[in-house]
Design goal:
Distance between the termini: 42 Å
Number of domains: 3
Number of strands: 25
Number of helices: 16
Strand content: 15-25%
Radius of gyration: 23 Å
CATH architecture of the largest domain: Roll
CATH superfamily of the largest domain: Dipeptide-binding Protein, Domain 3
Largest sheet: 7 strands, mixed
CATH class of the largest domain: Alpha Beta
Length: 535
């Protein structure tokens, strides 16, 4: 079926879009929380923050958009199988081939695949999906993924070839698993205007197991099983994904107004859930939380100040305080479940004495009021952070206290996620901010860390950075890539564009009525068509 053993080596990767771990204050959703649904095939899932409303794989940036609609609505040519070490398996394509020089990928689509509006999925849809992101007017953040694609050749309605200009290690998995959008829905609309298209913001049309039938902004999405899904109609007829704060999730699970909830990992709460007969599913997440520095800020441009701030924050205490140990201190960008993570890398340690030394050496002198000054200016910074994520909100206060111990004054600025995202990624108007990344199995950091990437909001532009990232894409040898990414992660530790905070476990709680929910660090929805409800 596949022409090269290289394919089997590469199938331990799988790309999902790089996402924010976001937070917005949820609104009440009375119509879906007041009483338990009567329909035994009606499932209610709770997430703790609202989606932004960009329901297309090419454009979304929020994990909540993925959970609320994108992941169950769209699907790609190939898929990953967590039950088989993440091997790629056929999906919309029934077969793929890799050329001997690793620079041409060929896909053969099934002839029985349809979008939710009944139109067939063809190679023209596949070509359109990628050329949308390769267009100079593309408004999303994923253009860097496709830099190596030289030509997309449609042979016929079911056969398509991707020709690369160079060997590009992440390309096979990214192309294979990227979700396909319908050309007939979007053609005729300028690329620059597609993010405002109603089939992005209100009514996405994909070829996945569920179709979106209702979206109430800030409150819920309703998903209905797709009758003509090529793997068979999913067992659960309808799923409502609602917004519910973490404070109310336990009560709703116990009363039965919620069947499944994405929850914060807290040991005491897990025990309380289990005492109520609920089932807990948790595992290390392919994600992390961080505090970003504005690197061109007159105070923060000094790497010694950034090191001092990192040394002053006891991240190990934060993990214990917020998660009772159900989390890990993050070392650098790679997640601890990634093959590219190097366990021999050492994070900058908690060392307040060293923090004080560095600040002294940088000319910030401690005054009698307990704060530091230089040339009459107080060492004062604003930490912006989004609402909706309780541990993150508590973390902001902990960081404020820890930095005050070394003479740094921190003003806290709580705002809705969309407001913060605009300030950080659009307006570049911040000093310090709290946010998170949810990552892919493929460790290539293009899209976040290249010097001209839209998501490189902190402005990291070290001369070795882009070179190492591109070098890591230029070989398919695992050992070579691992060594390159080790050097790159060490560069990040040394330059400290972030304070890497923690990687909390991914956790879900569900009623015993829900069967076959497995969850996975890379895709919560991966086997949704197999879920069953036994009321």
């Amino acid at each position: 079926m596949f022409k090269k053993s290289l394919f089997f080596l590469l199938t331990v990767f799988m790309v999902v879009a790089l996402l924010f771990v976001v937070g917005c204050e949820p609104e009440a959703v009375e119509e879906v929380v007041d009483e338990e649904p009567d329909d035994e095939d009606f499932l209610v899932m709770a997430i703790w923050s609202a989606p932004e409303g960009l329901f297309n794989p090419n454009l979304y940036e929020s994990a909540y958009d993925a959970y609320a609609a994108v992941d169950p609505v769209f699907t790609g040519m190939m898929d990953h199988d967590p039950d088989a070490d993440y091997e790629l398996v056929p999906n919309l394509a029934e077969e793929m081939e890799v050329s001997d020089d690793e620079m041409t990928f060929t896909y053969h689509l099934r002839d029985d695949i349809y979008f939710h509006d009944g139109e067939p999925v063809t190679t023209e849809d596949v070509k359109f999906t990628f050329e949308w992101m390769m267009d100079e007017d593309y408004t999303g953040v994923r253009a860097a993924y496709w830099e190596s694609i030289e030509e997309i050749e449609v042979e016929d309605e079911t056969t398509i070839h991707f020709h690369l200009s160079d060997v590009d290690a992440p390309a096979l998995i990214r192309i294979s698993t990227w979700s396909i959008s319908p050309k007939h829905v979007f053609e005729g609309t300028p690329i620059a205007d597609l993010e405002e298209h109603p089939n992005v913001t209100e009514q996405p049309i994909g070829a996945g197991p569920y179709k979106l039938t209702e979206y109430e902004e800030g409150q819920f999405t309703t998903l209905e099983a797709f009758e003509d899904y090529h793997r068979g109609k999913p067992n659960v007829d309808q799923i409502t994904v609602k917004v519910a704060s973490s404070d109310t999730q336990m009560a709703e699970l116990i009363t039965g107004s919620t069947d499944l909830a994405w929850v914060q990992p807290e040991r005491d709460e897990f025990e309380a859930y289990q005492e109520e007969g609920l089932e807990v599913v948790s595992y290390p997440a392919n994600a992390y939380q961080y505090m970003g520095f504005k690197l061109d800020h007159p105070i923060l441009e000094d790497v010694d100040v950034r090191h001092a701030i990192t040394h002053a924050i006891d991240r190990w205490e934060i993990v214990d305080a917020l998660f009772d140990g159900m989390s890990s201190v993050q070392v650098s960008h790679m997640s601890m479940v990634s093959w590219a993570y190097d366990e021999d890398l050492d994070p900058l340690p908690y060392d307040p004495d060293r923090a004080n030394e560095l600040l002294d050496e940088a000319g910030w002198e401690m005054d009698d009021d307990g704060y530091r000054y230089k040339d009459g200016e107080m060492l004062e910074l604003t930490l912006s952070y989004p609402s909706g994520n309780v541990p993150r909100e508590r973390n902001a206060e902990i960081i404020q206290d820890m930095l005050s111990d070394v003479g740094i004054s921190i003003e806290l600025d709580l705002m809705e996620f969309t407001t913060l995202a605009d300030a950080v990624f659009e307006e570049n108007d911040f000093e310090l901010y709290l946010m998170g990344w949810s990552l892919a199995i493929e460790p290539d950091p293009s899209g976040i860390w290249l010097s001209d990437d839209a998501w490189n909001a902190v402005g990291f532009d070290h001369p070795d950075n882009d070179e190492l990232i591109r070098k890591g894409r230029s070989t398919t040898d695992f050992d070579e890539r691992a060594e390159i990414y080790r050097d790159w992660q060490q560069l990040l530790i040394d330059e400290a564009p972030y304070v890497w905070l923690y990687a909390e476990d991914e956790a879900f709680v569900h009623t015993p009525d829900l069967k076959n929910f497995q969850g996975d660090a890379f895709s919560m929805w991966w086997n949704v068509e197999e879920w069953e409800l036994d009321r």
